TrEMBL record:
PANTHER family: DDE_TNP_IS1595 DOMAIN-CONTAINING PROTEIN, SI:DKEY-17M8.2. This is Uncharacterized protein LOC125778249. Keywords: Membrane, Transmembrane, Transmembrane helix. The gene is LOC125778249. It comes from the Eukaryota. It comes from Bactrocera dorsalis. Residues 148-316 form the ISXO2-like transposase domain.
Length: 338
């Protein structure tokens, strides 16, 4: 089984059943993937402890000196599986569901794990939260190395969008879009656990690149004091920055940027400036980001910023054509063993 399982490039339900359908298979798999340790050093003797493969996942025991009388250490201690209250096949199944963004209905429909007890709504919510939390830690640790976008001679489009509220009402009569926007507001309402005015998110993208940068505006303010530091964090000096007429951007030249303004409020041509410059790329990215939110089944109050970070992670694995389940396994391994 072990050799097969490491060569799987794309996981589907059939493979989940085949390789992760029983407790024993799950434990073996966790070992192969480095989610469960195969060995452990005694903190006192600095020697290998013996691994006893009894109980759920086995335990470690040192047989030297006084250690003999000491309690056993579960192999799950400090791992993703510490203190789990559901079966191992269910743990992996819920990870698979999160990776593929199953809705609650989907989770119940596809559930192949035969157990007496049905997964409760709270359990699903908990495990989705654990997965999201791990993804956020992983993603934040990995995005710092990306550096700045833009540079002299390059164009970066910048726009703020209010999540939970349509920014541009004119020039768009797409009913489906309006319906989705309403859905989206309701979901935001749900996961914030309070009345939502909307969250300002700053988006930045360089022309000719897919490297979208997103920042949630602290305190939900989009003043120059908030926006400029976020822009300087991501966008190289000397870049030509294209924005709408929002006054917070007026001071961009003071920070070494060339500034071009585009009038979104022209209903006939909302994305084209007087000099013919376009901003529809950043607009189309907003549509992709927003699609993520209303597709998800958020019954659980989550941090909005976390959802943005999760989006960035999903976007990156999609770009690299990484299997979502394999990507999540990597995340869990990184978060729990580093
Ligand atoms: Zn010892």
């Amino acid at each position: 089984m072990c050799r097969d399982v490491t060569t799987v490039q794309q996981w589907n339900i059939a493979q989940m059943v085949k390789y992760l359908g029983s407790h024993q298979l799950c434990v073996l798999f966790a070992e192969v993937y480095g989610l469960l340790p195969k060995s452990r050093l005694c903190a006192i003797h600095k020697t290998q402890m013996a691994l006893h493969k009894r109980h759920q996942v086995g335990y470690f025991k040192c047989s030297r000196g006084n250690c003999r009388t000491k309690s056993l250490i579960s192999r799950a201690a400090g791992t993703w599986f510490e203190g789990v209250k559901i079966s191992f096949p269910h743990v992996f199944y819920l990870m698979y569901c999160f990776a593929h963004r199953f809705t609650r209905e989907g989770i119940y429909r596809e559930n192949y794990v035969s157990v007496e007890k049905k997964l409760s709504s709270a359990t699903i919510t908990d495990w989705y939260s654990y997965c999201r939390e791990a993804v956020v830690i992983f993603q934040l640790d990995h995005q710092e190395f990306k550096g700045e976008i833009g540079g002299p001679g390059k164009v970066v489009q910048i726009d703020e969008s209010k999540f939970g509220k349509r920014k541009y009402n004119k020039g768009n009569n797409n009913n489906l879009y309006i319906y989705n926007a309403i859905m989206f507001i309701q979901i935001l309402f749900f996961f914030s656990g309070r009345r939502v005015e909307g969250h300002w998110v700053l988006g930045m993208i360089e022309d000719g690149s897919e490297d979208l940068r997103l920042e949630v505006c602290p305190e939900n303010v989009r003043s120059a004091e908030v926006l400029i530091p976020l822009i300087r964090k991501h966008v190289h000096e000397g870049t030509t920055i294209r924005t709408d007429f929002w006054r917070a951007y007026e001071c961009l030249p003071e920070y070494g940027y060339n500034h071009e303004k585009v009038n979104h409020s022209d209903p006939g041509n909302p994305f084209v400036a007087e000099d013919g410059t376009h901003t529809q790329r950043i607009e189309s990215h907003w549509r992709v980001v927003k699609r993520l939110f209303y597709k998800d089944n958020y019954n659980n109050p989550a941090n909005f910023a976390d959802v943005i970070v999760e989006f960035l992670w999903r976007r990156e694995i999609q770009k690299k054509h990484t299997d979502p389940f394999i990507a999540l396994l990597g995340v869990i391994k990184y978060v729990r063993l580093t």
